[in-house]
């Protein structure tokens, strides 16, 4: 007599699926993104030089993971603004449990061999415009954006601040030798962040510096 074949209880399978769905939904609500990210196609970044995070003032440490993600898989992402052009396979998802009270810096390696093309590279970050709408914000750290403010301000205290900022952050400005470009998070790092690397086709982007 053969042994009976075990048949899993379909109610149990349904219950487990319900639990997984609820956990996913809860995580997405907490992060501010929508349900489609449950099915995102992610490739974990294993090269520490491809994307790195510099925390400035850590209040609570936590794990940080970085992923390559297809642009179409980024939830609530609008089209790339017209002054920019996407660079293939250069969108990222950052997930962190770290709470940073400072302005953390996210640095990316962009392996372009043409220096003129590298000068056009920018980092866009997905941010809330007017909830629930999202937009891409240019968060690139650059010497040119600081110099533009120096040329237009007459406030001596602000000028001193800008001068100190340049000294402290020059290592994060675009560097063709290392192929590095960086983004400063000036409004608090979320548990889930999305970035895309683009080329700036013209300069009238309205990029701001804080």
Describe the protein.
By secondary structure, the protein is α+β, with helices and mostly antiparallel strands. A 6-stranded antiparallel β-sheet has the order 1-4-5-11-8-9. Strands 2-7-10 form a 3-stranded antiparallel β-sheet, with no helix packed on it. Strands 3-6 form a two-stranded antiparallel ribbon. Strand 8 and strand 9 form a beta hairpin. The protein is globular and about 50 Å long. The N terminus is likely disordered.
Task: Give the gist of this structure.
This protein has 210 residues and is α+β, with helices and mostly antiparallel strands. Helices cover 24% and strands 30% of the residues.
The main pleated sheet reads as:
6 strands, antiparallel
Number of E-state strands? 11
Helix tally equals: 4
Q: Which range does the strand content fall in?
A: 25-35%
Q: Nearest-angstrom radius of gyration? A: 21 Å
Order of helices and strands: HEEEEEEEHEEHHEE
Question: How is the topology of this model organized?
Answer:
Layout (H helix, E strand, L loop, with lengths): L9 H22 L10 E3 L6 E4 L3 E3 L3 E6 L14 E13 L2 E2 L4 E5 L5 H5 L1 E8 L5 E5 L4 H10 L3 H14 L10 E5 L7 E9 L10
Antiparallel strand pairs: 1-4, 2-7, 3-6, 4-5, 5-11, 7-10, 8-9, 8-11
Helix pairs in contact: 3-4
């Amino acid at each position: 007599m053969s042994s009976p074949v075990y048949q899993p209880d379909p109610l149990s399978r349904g219950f487990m699926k319900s639990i997984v769905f609820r956990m996913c939904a809860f995580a997405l609500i907490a992060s501010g993104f929508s349900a489609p990210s449950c099915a995102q196609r992610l490739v974990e970044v294993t090269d520490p030089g491809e994307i790195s995070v510099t925390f400035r003032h850590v209040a609570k440490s936590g794990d940080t993971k970085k992923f390559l993600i297809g642009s179409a898989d980024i939830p609530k992402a609008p089209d790339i603004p017209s002054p920019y052009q996407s660079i293939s396979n250069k969108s990222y998802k950052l997930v962190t449990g770290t709470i940073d009270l400072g302005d953390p810096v996210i640095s990316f390696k962009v392996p372009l061999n043409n220096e003129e093309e590298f000068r056009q590279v920018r980092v866009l970050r997905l941010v809330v415009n007017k909830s629930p709408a999202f937009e891409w914000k240019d968060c690139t750290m650059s010497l040119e954006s600081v110099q533009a403010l120096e040329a237009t301000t007459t406030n001596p205290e602000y000028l001193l601040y800008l001068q100190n900022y340049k000294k402290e952050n020059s290592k994060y400005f675009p560097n063709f030798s290392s192929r590095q470009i960086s983004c400063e998070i000036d409004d608090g790092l979320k548990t889930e962040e999305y970035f895309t690397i683009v080329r700036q086709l013209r300069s009238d982007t309205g990029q701001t510096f804080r």
